[in-house]
Amino acid sequence: MRAESAAVFEIPLSDAPDAARLSLTRAQRPATASAMVIDHQGQSRVVEVPGENALTVYLDKQEIVTLMTLGQAPEALIMGYLRNQRLVESLADLLSVHVDWDVGACAVHTRQGRGSELAARTATRMAKRTVTTGCGQGTMFGDWLDELQPLHSEATLAVSTLDAALARVLALDTVYKRAGSVHACALLRNTPAVPLVYHVEDVGRHNAVDAISGLMWLDEEGGADKIFYTTGRLTSEMVMKTVQMGVPFLVSRSGLTQMGLSMAQEMGITLVCRARVGRHLVYSHGERIRRGGA
């Protein structure tokens, strides 16, 4: 694969002088493209449409999956995907993540390489696939329902903080406002000022959450004091990934599925749906929501 199609840089994986380093590209794609349309009055005008790019992932030269993505944070997306699928357990296992849009591929190399215990575990997990309700059909590998551990959290969320978080996300200059047809995910701190940690848009909500998971992995960002927001519906896949990130509050402007609700109840996730500033519905673990002076 040709690395010259994007800048390559290295980051240390710890503060130690001799720390192992991870080689990454920065291969962001344009978020939108122009299209000529004819409106209801018969007038021609130019509008923006979101990008959509096919990116095939190779893990130690083994083809894993092809993702359709906006391409705003492709390296973080791939890392988050591998993390959430548990195909790579530790950031220290990764040697390089290189995206080349000239060939529409991402080459991921691990320190162990092919023929290692990691490669054997990857093959075992990939032998069992579950097609999820993700946009464009997502896939989960392995016995993921049996692998989750419940999230035990004593965190609470004030309604005023929830409303401030929703207002903050709404105020962002987004691809959705310019072109529509994308989903967004955001990670915010659970404090009155609700600082925005990450915001990612993509053609599928599962891509956006994977990208945020990858960024959290890179930055060693924990989830216990965070709120996760998505524009998409809350399915079992979304709940599962939120559990893996360790975030107790999952908020959506949309609805949820029965399996998503059951999993949230069992796994200790507070689900807040149909969320707008000033109104929302809490479906699970509502004892964590503080109202008024509570």
TrEMBL record:
Q: What is the lineage of its organism?
A: Bacteria, Pseudomonadati, Pseudomonadota, Betaproteobacteria, Candidatus Accumulibacter
Q: Which Pfam families match?
A: FdhD-NarQ (PF02634)
The residues the entry assigns to the signal sequence are none
Give the annotated active site: C135
- What is the protein name given in its UniProt record? Sulfur carrier protein FdhD
Family per UniProt? Belongs to the FdhD family.
What's in the keyword line of the UniProt record? Cytoplasm, Molybdenum cofactor biosynthesis
Keyword field contains Cytoplasm: yes
Question: Does the keyword Metal-binding belong to this entry?
Answer: no
